Amino acid sequence: MRVITIATDLDHPFLRRLLAPSCEAAGLRLDVLEGNQKGFRPRDKRALLTEYLAEQVAPDELVMFTDAYDTLFLRGADYIRTTYAGFAQRVVFSAESNCWPLGNVGLALHDGPPVRPYPYLNSGGFIGPAGDIVALNTKYPTPPSEHFPLLGRLGTHGVDTDRLHGASDQYYWTLVQLLEPDTVGLDHGAVLFENFAPTVANFCELSRWTSDFRAHGRQAASYRRERTRLESRLQSPSGAAQVHFASALAKTVVLDLLDEGQLPFWLTEVLPR
């Protein structure tokens, strides 16, 4: 088993100080693929990962993908393999409380009520045999939006979701998972992956918070709010193997807490002394 991430900045502090050391402490092999072409986009990660898996990894080898700049690991391969074996699906994604990037449109694509506490796919972490991941990318070379009548109806009104969200890996994998629920599962209970992003009713809130932080730095109300939220949440340890601070503000707060020696013991104990 191996953990794979993709980075354009190999010196990013979260990758260098948290993700890589946590993998080492957990005894996990971390392969860092460098996305170094000009104008590298989020959707380019999928092509780079697929090429690497097809050429460098045996089809039956278990691989775990993780985002590079906002994740770290708490548990090793034995826990991951045992927990993964409990899922019915061969490919399992992290899940989160927000239906991003489609928002309310995405809610309408789901059948039935949401499965709490984490109902919706998050592409910052997933696990499965290399061959199965390659097969899904081969079967769906582009976001399969044509299979969803609602998205087609939006298109007749000038709302092209492929144009709006085609650069998003999460948009792609959300549609694939909805089409392939027997193959692609979600970690609704956060036993493998736990996402620490704030829950929002309107995604415009996140962009406003980011703009506020860029304008006012750590004096911004959004920074103070996110720091208070995370300090409270981090009082309780996660039971997952990977934790994901999936917002610009969340990972800034975590790096600040690391610099200040304020991260809780259950996070710092996985880092080398």
Explain what this protein looks like in three dimensions:
The chain has helices at 13-25, 44-56, 77-84, 104-109, 130-139, 149-156, 161-165, 169-179, 204-216, 221-233, 248-259, 265-268, and strands at 2-7, 30-34, 62-66, 71-73, 91-96, 120-129, 184-186, 193-195, 242-244. The longest helix is centred in the first third of the chain and has 13 residues, at 13-25. The chain has a single domain (2-195), classed as Spore Coat Polysaccharide Biosynthesis Protein SpsA, Chain A. The strands form 2 sheets. The chain has a 6-stranded mixed β-sheet, sandwiched between helices. Strands 4-9-8 form a 3-stranded mixed β-sheet. By secondary structure, it is an alpha/beta fold. β1 (2-7), α1 (13-25) and β2 form a beta-alpha-beta unit. This is PLOD1-3-like GT domain-containing protein. Residues 3-137 form the PLOD1-3-like GT domain. It comes from Micromonospora matsumotoense.
Total count of strands:
9
Proportion of β residues?
Answer: 15-25%
CATH architecture: Alpha-Beta Complex
The residue ranges in which pLDDT falls below 50 over 5 or more consecutive positions are none
CATH topology call:
Spore Coat Polysaccharide Biosynthesis Protein SpsA, Chain A
Kindly report the spatial arrangement of strands forming the biggest sheet.
2-1-3-6-5-7
SSE order in H/E notation? EHEHEEHEHEHHHHEEHHEHH
Cα-based radius of gyration, to the nearest Å: 18 Å
Number of DSSP helices? Answer: 12
Q: Write down the overall geometry.
A: globular
**Structural class of the helix and strand makeup?**
alpha/beta
For the sheet with most strands, the description reads: 6 strands, mixed
N-to-C span: 25 Å
Number of domains: 1
- Helix content class: 40-55%
InterPro entries: GT_PLOD (IPR057589)
Protein name: PLOD1-3-like GT domain-containing protein
Domain PLOD1-3-like GT: 3-137
Organism: Micromonospora matsumotoense
